[in-house]
Design a protein that fits this description.
Largest sheet: 8 strands, mixed
Strand order of the largest sheet: 1-2-3-4-5-6-8-7
Number of domains: 1
Structural class: alpha+beta
Order of helices and strands: EEHHHEEEHEHEE
CATH superfamily: Gcn5-related N-acetyltransferase (GNAT)
Amino acid sequence: MIPVPDIGLLRAPEGSDLDWLHGLENNSKLWYLGFSKEPFNTEVLKNYLDQQPGSLLRDGQLRLILSHEGQPVGALDLYDYDPFARKAGVGIVLDAAHHGKGWSKVALTAFESYVFGTLGLRSVYAMVPSQNAPSIGLFEGLGYQKIGELKDWVLHHGAFESAVLYQKVYV
């Protein structure tokens, strides 16, 4: 478990997270942020939880749950993990009830300490829809550099928008 100051901790997903995870993965308002555009049934999610902790090397991805007062309130993901180049994509989602509290910044900072320190990654990147001002502020506020823009990359509410590509290199 990874302490997240003044909030709680980051931990592996557990069976008790099933209902929360089901709500997260089936929230169609968030689907535009990822690759999956379809709902997950409870059995699929239960199988996923039964396989935790997964293997970053085997699966190429890792999800940690942000827990506050024993309850899941967010998730931080590594994806597209490349162990040779020591890089991965990073994503974060937080329950709407906790938006605007600065929790994303604190949680992502703790997550970065883990991925750069413990896992030994050299670089992480994030793709952020260009209209997602809070996420742009989060990544820029944590020192991520804008390294590019992918035109018409995200389909959101029937319209295409660009995605901004951010990178942070650990030195």
